[in-house]
Amino acid sequence: MQIDERVVNDVTILDLKGKMTLGEGDELLKEKINSLVQQGRRKLLLNLGGVPYIDSAGLGEIVRTYTTVSRQGGKLKLLNLTKRIQDLLAITKLLTVFETFDAEQEAVRSFS
Fold first, then answer.
1. At 79, which CATH number?
2. In the predicted model, is pLDDT for residue 38 greater than 80?
3. Cβ atoms 48, 82 nearer than 8 A
4. pTM for the whole thing?
5. Phi then psi for 92, rounded to 5 degrees?
């Protein structure tokens, strides 16, 4: 898994590419988020457009990430969910927890 970081206005966008599975992406995401939170970055947007598959460990990491950021007074939102990921979040009732967006501009604006 690969994570590219960029900042739009004061929102940190993480472009995720590759499968998010146990041992492949879940630890990487955890380290990245912890590092950003320590730097005081509290507005995070996960772009999942390049993620074809998430298993339970990957899903657990997204939930843990959400909790970590929220506890620090920040916000974590999701962008570009594939049909498969959207279905997964719907089945697990997590679609009601996360704010999700299809358009990056709209997602970035939602933080202000």
1. 3.30.750.24
2. yes
3. yes
4. 0.94
5. -85, 5
